[in-house]
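Structure, all three chains, one model.
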Amino acid sequence: MLDLMQDEVFKAFSTYALIVILKMMLMAPLTTFYRVRRGAFASEEDVAHKSGEERKKLLRTHPDVERVRRCHQNDLENVVPFVLIGFIYTLSGPQLSAAILHFRIFTGSRIFHTISYVGAFHQPCRGLSFLVGLATTVSMAYNVLSQFSNL
Amino acid sequence: MLDLMQDEVFKAFSTYALIVILKMMLMAPLTTFYRVRRGAFASEEDVAHKSGEERKKLLRTHPDVERVRRCHQNDLENVVPFVLIGFIYTLSGPQLSAAILHFRIFTGSRIFHTISYVGAFHQPCRGLSFLVGLATTVSMAYNVLSQFSNL
Amino acid sequence: MLDLMQDEVFKAFSTYALIVILKMMLMAPLTTFYRVRRGAFASEEDVAHKSGEERKKLLRTHPDVERVRRCHQNDLENVVPFVLIGFIYTLSGPQLSAAILHFRIFTGSRIFHTISYVGAFHQPCRGLSFLVGLATTVSMAYNVLSQFSNL
């Protein structure tokens, strides 16, 4: 079992996978931060300590909260496939340099994606960083599938 | 490490896992397609090039966009568990024929699920395909757990 | 391949991972249960057998349905990272007792989280159980990363 941990590609994969997963998990505290800051909650028990009138006001959606939540959702939709496909790709025995290139481009694209999303940067910042991440993941999947069929 | 890649069950698992993950990832461009086609966007920067009045009109939800997003969400809720449980199931050393049967039924059920969801087919098309996929994943989990406890 | 399955840490990881994934998957039938019970559906084909007037009434959101859906979403955002990071952590060769402690605390925290969320318990029940689960996952990630850099 420790053999896999000695492998350079797997070590690189683990490091970058942990970084992007931790980045994704950061979105939850960030959502809470915006919920408290903007006064926009979703569950009644979160505003139970407030008086009746104020309670109703706080149970609402706010554009800034929704923006962070969409960013979190986009992470789920892209980071999780990257980790799953990246693991299979790592096992398929790619060249270390090619593998690290894939992992770095993906990680960079997702960090830039989060900054452009939360910061509401002008398009196509967010769109492009999303596409770069998508292309990296598809490229890894293509590598594995073409190896299986000996293309 | 390459030992796993020589294993027939793992090769089958990898192939079907990649197919369903790529299918799931396809939902993102499909959402964008419907957003542009129906003129229903979520972020202000996506409509920044429009004039003031038109901008407000385009920041809305549309039933077709929401439908594709629900389908994407349902994929996340089912495809990711399939891949995670399927990997543990693959390592537990199942018979090749039984494993391939599980992978094929799941993959087929999810493709049919997406078609019935996006195409708004009469129920119980979507409901049944969802249940078949769920049952396949639960069956794999049951196989692993019963092996652990020597049932 | 079966070597991994003989490993005690991996066996423990597999068991707890399967439990929390199955728990997460349970949220889908629970959502359907609340949709039917409260009469709050999202897709037109789900209410196609009703008459015109009733159909429109049933296409709505209901706080109880939204609550279960938020709980499901929170599971996706936390259980999936736990399984992915937990797998890498398992491969990094931790002590069996430390590993089982991590897995048990996480599993317990998520079960309590679901009960407090669906049951609308007073805060900080839900908040604390969420934070405990988050801390467990971050602790596993920290273990792996510190091993890589020989801290």
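Residues 120 and 146 of chain A are 38 Å apart (CA to CA).
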